[in-house]
Structures are given as structure tokens and as C-alpha cells.
């Protein structure tokens, strides 16, 4: 009896061990591959900030990419936010959100919906490019839409047509996705914005200049800027993108406040770069998109209010779109939104038809 019991225990142990190995092998099979490469941006050469035109780019290749060499994939370009970089979102650095586990889980459940996901490193001297064309930081808008897309299509098995390209981003990246998407409907077909910043500016009185603007005006050296608070640095990044000045070293920018006085002409340049201010000029382009969606947390009040305005503007032009205000902050549920909303949005609206 004792011998029989021992055999049973051994059999159960071997069965569990085999199951564990099979589970581990299955788990490994559904994991995608993450590569981090450098892409030279000719359009980023000669920027006055001195940032390298050779940019890191993180790329997620789905699990079947290496096992099915004849298959081609749609591509989603994800633009990161201010102070972030590509490495933070792909597990190379510790961060509040990691994309590969989200993508692995999603595509394990739907292998037919596998996609390539690409994120360029847009971290600059000013901690963010705003994905705008500027002599100070480089032509980021065109780099993403033209050079980066061309490079990915030439080096990876993509479905190289606009119907199979999506563009999205969080915060500054959401702003960039709308800015680039509405100007390049021949490149991207589907756009999604996660808590997009900078769609519209806050009203400003010439009699009560915000303290942050005055602090920015007081900074004269790069060393002082490096020690500045988040808001002050963001003002410099905005100025580098929207009011560059090649004759004004060491930053080569014009700030909205100079010597304690508001500069209306500089504010006008900033206003011209707010998507809600110039949306009327891009309506025909936006109508060429297959789909556009956006969301924000209710506690992210300024941004939530701005996408309500975007919803109203698109409704006025009868442009179909997806829009939602959910319970959350600027970052609290972004990983969940990425998986359960945005990826589903791309699965529904991108073309998976092979070339």
C-alpha cells in the first residue's frame, strides 16, 4: 500500500512538472520581442539645441513575427509624453507603465489582431519636442510622419499603406498625434489621443502674469533651467517648439514674458499651434481619417475640458469620433485605457489585409 502511494505521488509530481513546463513554453511563445534601435533623422540635423539626430526607437514585434516570416503587420505609432522617453514604456527603465506585458496579454487572446508598435525617443534638451517642427529642436513633426514611417516600412514586415497605420500618444504625445495626424491623412488612417495636453491655452491677463511665466523669464543659463520646476521646464519646451529664435542664445527661444512684461506676439505664435484654434483649417484632412478617438480622466480637469471642446467641434462638422471622460487622473488608468480601449479601437479600425 505504501509503495502504491509513493507511485501515485510520483506520477502526480511528474504530471504537474510536465504541465508547468508546457505552460512556461506556451507563455514564452506568446511573448513578443522588443528591440531598441537608432534611426538617423535627416530632418533633425542642425537643430540649435544640439540634440543628436540619431534617435532611439523602441519597437514591439508580436510573438508570431519570428515564426511566420510571410506575415505582415499593421503598425501603431505611440508617442510618449513630456519628460518621458521610449525606454520607459518598453521596460528598459523603471516607469509607471510598461507596454510589452500589455501587448503580450492582448495579442495572446487575439493572435489575428497582432500589430507592431513603434515609439521614437522625443526627449530633448528641454525634456520634450512637442512633436513640432522647429529650428531649435528639429523637424519632429516631419521626422515622425515621413522619415520614421519610411524607415519602419523598409526594415520590418509592415502592411505599408495608410489604412494599416495608426497614430496615438499620451499627454504631449496625444497633442503630437492630433497635430501630426490632421496634417498627414495620407500617412495615417486612425488616430487616438490619451489625455492630450496643449489643445487650447488658458486665458491670461496682462495685469496678472502667472508666477510660472515670471520664473521662466528669470532663468538665463542652461544650469538654471536644469534646476527649474516641471512647469517652468514645460514653458521652455513649448517656446522651443512654437517660438524659436535663432538669434537668441543660449536657448534660441522667445518666452511669452520678457523683462517682466507679457509679449503678445509670442503668445500669438503659441495660440497658432493649439489644435482647437486651427481645427477649422484641417477639417477636410480629419474627414479623410478612418477613425479618431480620445479620452481623459475626470480629475485631469483642464485636459478633460479641452477634449469636451474637441468633441463639440467635431460634432459641429459631423465628424464621427469616439470620446469618453472616465474616472481618473492624468496617469491613473492609462495602462487600462491602452489595453481595453485604444488597442480595441485600432483592432476595429485598422486594416489587417496583407499586401
Question: Topology of this structure?
Answer:
Blueprint: H1 2-29, E1 33-40, E2 54-61, E3 75-79, H2 86-89, H3 99-109, E4 116-120, E5 133-134, E6 138-139, H4 140-155, E7 165-170, H5 172-183, E8 190-194, H6 211-218, H7 222-226, H8 230-242, E9 257-258, E10 261-262, H9 264-272, H10 275-278, H11 283-288, E11 291-297, H12 301-316, E12 322-326, H13 334-349
Parallel strand pairs: 3-4, 3-7, 7-8, 8-11, 11-12
Antiparallel strand pairs: 1-2, 2-4, 5-6, 9-10
Helix pairs in contact: 3-13, 4-5, 6-8
Would you kindly provide a written description of the structure presented here, covering whatever features stand out?
- The chain is of the alpha/beta class and 355 residues long.
- The chain folds into 2 domains: 30-200 and 279-349, Alpha/Beta hydrolase fold, catalytic domain (Rossmann fold), CATH 3.40.50.1820; 211-270, no CATH class.
- The protein is 42% helix and 16% strand.
- It has helices spanning 2-29, 86-89, 99-109, 140-155, 172-183, 211-218, 222-226, 230-242, 264-272, 275-278, 283-288, 301-316, 334-349, and strands at residues 33-40, 54-61, 75-79, 116-120, 133-134, 138-139, 165-170, 190-194, 257-258, 261-262, 291-297, 322-326.
- The strands form 3 sheets. An 8-stranded mixed beta sheet has the order 1-2-4-3-7-8-11-12, with helices on both faces. A two-stranded antiparallel sheet has the order 5-6. A two-stranded antiparallel sheet has the order 9-10.
- Helix 12 links the parallel strand 11 and strand 12.
- Helix 3 (99-109) packs across helix 13, helix 4 (140-155) crosses helix 5 and helix 6 packs across helix 8 (230-242).
- The model is unreliable at 5-28 (pLDDT under 50).
Amino acid at each position: 500500500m505504501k509503495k502504491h502511494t509513493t507511485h501515485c505521488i510520483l506520477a502526480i509530481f511528474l504530471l504537474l512538472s510536465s504541465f508547468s513546463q508546457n505552460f512556461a513554453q506556451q507563455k514564452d511563445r506568446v511573448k513578443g520581442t522588443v528591440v531598441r534601435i537608432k534611426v538617423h533623422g535627416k530632418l533633425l540635423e542642425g537643430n540649435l539645441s544640439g540634440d543628436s539626430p540619431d534617435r532611439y526607437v523602441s519597437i514591439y514585434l508580436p510573438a508570431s513575427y519570428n515564426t511566420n516570416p510571410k506575415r505582415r503587420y499593421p503598425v501603431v505609432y505611440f508617442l510618449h509624453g513630456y519628460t518621458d522617453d521610449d525606454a520607459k514604456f518598453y521596460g528598459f527603465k523603471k516607469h509607471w507603465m510598461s507596454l510589452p506585458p500589455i501587448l503580450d496579454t492582448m495579442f495572446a487572446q487575439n493572435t489575428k489582431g497582432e500589430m507592431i508598435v513603434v515609439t521614437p525617443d522625443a526627449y530633448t534638451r528641454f525634456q520634450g519636442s512637442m512633436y513640432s517642427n522647429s529650428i531649435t529642436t528639429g523637424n519632429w513633426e516631419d521626422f515622425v510622419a515621413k522619415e520614421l514611417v519610411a524607415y519602419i516600412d523598409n526594415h520590418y514586415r509592415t502592411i505599408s499603406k495608410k489604412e494599416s497605420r495608426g497614430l496615438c500618444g499620451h499627454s504631449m504625445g496625444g497633442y503630437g498625434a492630433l497635430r501630426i495626424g490632421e496634417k498627414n491623412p495620407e500617412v495615417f488612417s486612425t488616430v487616438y489621443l490619451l489625455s492630450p495636453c496643449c489643445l487650447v491655452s488658458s486665458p491670461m491677463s496682462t495685469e496678472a502674469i502667472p508666477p510660472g511665466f515670471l520664473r521662466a523669464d528669470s532663468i538665463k543659463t542652461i544650469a538654471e533651467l536644469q534646476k527649474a520646476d516641471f512647469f517652468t521646464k514645460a514653458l521652455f519646451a513649448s517656446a522651443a517648439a512654437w517660438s524659436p529664435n535663432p538669434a537668441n542664445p543660449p536657448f534660441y527661444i522667445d518666452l511669452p514674458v520678457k523683462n517682466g512684461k507679457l509679449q503678445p506676439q509670442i503668445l500669438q505664435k503659441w495660440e497658432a499651434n493649439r489644435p482647437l484654434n486651427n481645427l477649422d483649417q484641417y477639417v477636410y484632412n480629419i474627414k479623410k481619417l478612418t477613425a479618431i478617438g480620445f479620452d481623459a480622466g475626470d480629475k485631469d480637469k483642464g485636459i478633460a475640458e479641452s477634449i469636451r471642446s474637441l468633441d463639440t467641434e467635431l460634432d459641429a462638422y459631423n465628424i464621427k469620433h469616439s470620446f469618453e471622460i472616465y474616472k481618473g487622473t492624468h496617469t491613473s488608468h492609462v495602462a487600462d485605457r491602452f489595453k481595453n480601449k485604444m488597442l480595441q479601437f485600432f483592432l476595429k479600425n485598422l486594416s489587417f489585409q496583407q499586401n
